Amino acid sequence: MLQFIYELCPNLKRLTIMVTVTEKAKERIQKIMTDENYDENYFVRVAVVSGGCSGLSYDLKFDNEEKKGDQFFEDNGVKICLDIKSYLYLAGTELDYSDGLDGKGFEFHNPNASRTCACGESFSV
């Protein structure tokens, strides 16, 4: 399946890390994993799902079960899993964490998004 994707999108071959993780996001992920007693078998599953005011939304959760077609990457010590559909939408995306007054939570900086909603929770390509 990946060979087919590479043929459709030859620039993906140059990307070895699909999703990068900032230091703040790494620290928050590690805290959640510690607080929830997740062991080293757990990873961060990032997906793109239908929904939100712009059409597509991000979904982030912790998982320890691999599914058919999953793609795994590691950045900044964080193991990330993408399903094959999300793989195409998230190429080059940065996962960050904000704990400021204007919002709190994980943020996705996606260079593929042509439009995002005001809250940043959904996007379109």
Structure description:
The structure is a single chain. The protein is α+β, with helices and mostly antiparallel strands and 125 residues long. The chain contains 3 helices and 9 strands. It has helices at residues 2-8, 23-35, 84-89; strands at 19-21, 43-50, 56-63, 71-75, 78-82, 93-98, 105-109, 115-116, 122-124. The chain starts with a helix and ends with a strand. 20% of the residues are buried.
In DSSP terms, counting alpha (H) and pi (I) runs of 4 or more, how many helices? 3
**CATH homologous superfamily grouping:** HesB-like domain
Specify the CATH architecture.
Answer: Sandwich
The fraction of residues assigned to DSSP E strands is 35-45%
The number of strands is 9
**H/E topology pattern:** HEHEEEEHEEEE
Strand order of the largest sheet: 4-5-2-3-9-8
Rounded to the nearest angstrom, the radius of gyration is 15 Å
Portion of residues within helices:
10-25%
Which CATH class is shown? Mainly Beta
Distance between the termini: 22 Å
Q: Estimate the global geometry from the Cα principal axes.
A: globular
